[in-house]
Amino acid sequence: MPVTEITSEEQLRDLLTSRSAGVSVLNFWASWVDQCAQMNQVFAELSDRYPLQFIQVEAEKFPDVSMGFEIEAAPTFVFVRNGKPVRRVDGAHAAELTAAVEQHSTAAPASASRSAASASSADTPRAPLAPPPQRSEEELNAYLSQLTHRAPVVIFIKGSPDVPRCGFSKQLINLLNGAEIEYDYFDILGDEQVRQGLKKFSDWPTYPQLYIGGELQGGLDIVKELHANGELKELVAASAQ
């Protein structure tokens, strides 16, 4: 089936509630993420081979839809049946996406897995191949304290400053770079235990997060306010003393 590019929330709602739709695969993508271009091509190839409904959603163009499906980074693929998510694939992982599509298809040609598997060799992995060590709660808190204090300014983001993996992280990076503020960073997508544990540690449920002198300042909106009223540079300067 051809890929359907969403132009309105109503269109998406109609597609997902259609009785004949069966399982739908939603591709949440962003034009500024390099990996999305590659995965859009893989997505289109899969749509030619499997009898599912393939739908593309430009994540930042439809923020309410992205929020509803808890999209935190692009690309993200969500499998929907009867209007409810049943599986998701986070990141540019062609082989994992292909396996998920095969599982939810009534017919799965063997050639498709070979095609997407070859594309996966160029994937940018979301996390290290070797998973980070599992830590006890005490060990994790000690590690988080170390991370938040390892530089005067530390940001916890999705991706890296060169390749941010969400729009909010990109905005924070641009703000700090524009203000000529030096910082260290930690990619939370590479360590799920840190990603979840820091929410409790900082009592802050979302990302990105910015720490100055080991103390949480907040997320993007708060950092914008601090920058606008001149407090951000004052806090950075005070932490360096």
TrEMBL record:
Its GO CC terms?
A: cytosol; nucleus
Q: Name one GO molecular function term.
A: metal ion binding
Question: Mind telling me which Pfam families this protein's record contains?
Answer: Glutaredoxin, Thioredoxin
InterPro entries associated with the record: Glutaredoxin, GRX_PICOT-like, Monothiol_GRX-rel, Thioredoxin-like_sf, Thioredoxin_domain
Region described as Disordered: spans on this chain: 103-135
Is Cell inner membrane tagged as a keyword?
no
Q: Which family does it belong to?
A: Belongs to the glutaredoxin family. Monothiol subfamily.
Per the UniProt record, the lineage of the source organism begins with: Eukaryota, Fungi, Fungi incertae sedis, Zoopagomycota, Zoopagomycotina
Q: Source organism's superkingdom?
A: Eukaryota
Instruction: State what protein this is by name.
Output: Putative thioredoxin
Function statement: Monothiol glutaredoxin involved in the biogenesis of iron-sulfur clusters. Binds one iron-sulfur cluster per dimer. The iron-sulfur cluster is bound between subunits, and is complexed by a bound glutathione and a cysteine residue from each subunit.
Where do Low complexity bias regions lie?
Answer: 105-127
* Signal sequence bounds: none
PANTHER family reported for this sequence:
GLUTAREDOXIN FAMILY MEMBER, GLUTAREDOXIN-3
UniProt keyword Transit peptide present: no
Keywords (alphabetical) are: Iron, Iron-sulfur, Metal-binding
